[in-house]
Design a protein that fits this description.
229 residues; alpha/beta; 6-stranded mixed beta sheet; two-stranded antiparallel sheet
Length: 229
């Protein structure tokens, strides 16, 4: 698998041919098997934390894993166009705006034994910016081909934090233009509810376990008028 610098990755997207490539910093893998109007992202799939940051982190790998979203990259692979992120959200959270993407306290726990230095923060911020430049290029390419795009922003949630009433599938809609997209959302929710996961009783609801308030949808809404996340 090639590991190109950002500009080469952007050129691959612009060229419009199938490819799979991991960015030269190892942070993201972009895969285009064929061009369709749907993109799947797994922005919290990653567990990687730079050595210089792991030495400063108070949390064990197991503690970090509780709030990461393992296997969402595997789930994303069902679609032909995917962006899977390999860095832990504890380095920088792509579902937060740049100024807030490095935690100080997360889920009530102090994250750092010693806070990251300015240079270390700058490196993490650079990865955050790079991801959104690549995602913007990918969405723009899909919109040019099809006139619109659908992005599946895939996450998991820690069941121990929720009651038994939490659905198997949760759609976060708080930032969706529902007068425009409600029919698409309801079609998707109905399809999810019909999946057979025997012996698990399947359920699909909107805004129960989480409401879809993350930065990825806010960013896409601000830059891509014809894309639904």
């Amino acid at each position: 698998m090639p590991t190109p610098p950002e500009q080469v990755l952007l050129d691959l997207i612009a060229r419009g041919e199938p490819f799979t490539a991991t960015s030269d910093d190892g942070a993201i893998t972009v895969r285009v098997e064929n061009w369709v109007p749907c993109i799947a992202t797994a922005i919290h799939d990653g567990h990687r934390l730079r050595d210089e940051l792991e030495a400063r982190c108070l949390l064990t790998p197991g503690e970090r894993l509780r709030e990461e979203d393992p296997y969402t990259g595997d789930l994303a692979a069902a679609l032909p166009i995917t962006v899977v992120c390999h860095d832990s959200r504890y380095e920088y959270d792509l579902n937060r705006p740049l100024a807030q993407c490095i935690y100080t306290v997360a889920w009530g726990r102090e994250v750092w034994r010693r806070p990251p230095t300015r240079a270390q923060r700058d490196r993490s911020h650079a990865s955050h910016r790079r991801f959104y430049r690549v995602l913007d290029a990918l969405i723009a390419a899909v919109e040019r081909r099809f006139g619109a795009a659908l992005v599946f922003d895939l996450h998991s949630f820690n069941l121990s934090r929720h009651t038994d009433a939490a659905p198997v599938f949760n759609l976060g809609t708080s930032q969706i233009d529902m007068p425009r997209w409600e029919g698409v959302v309801e079609h998707f929710r109905t399809a999810l509810a019909g999946i057979d996961l025997d012996p698990i009783a399947t359920s699909a609801q909107c805004d129960v376990a989480f409401q879809g308030r993350g930065y990825l949808i806010a960013h896409v809404d601000a830059h891509h008028a014809d894309t639904l996340v």
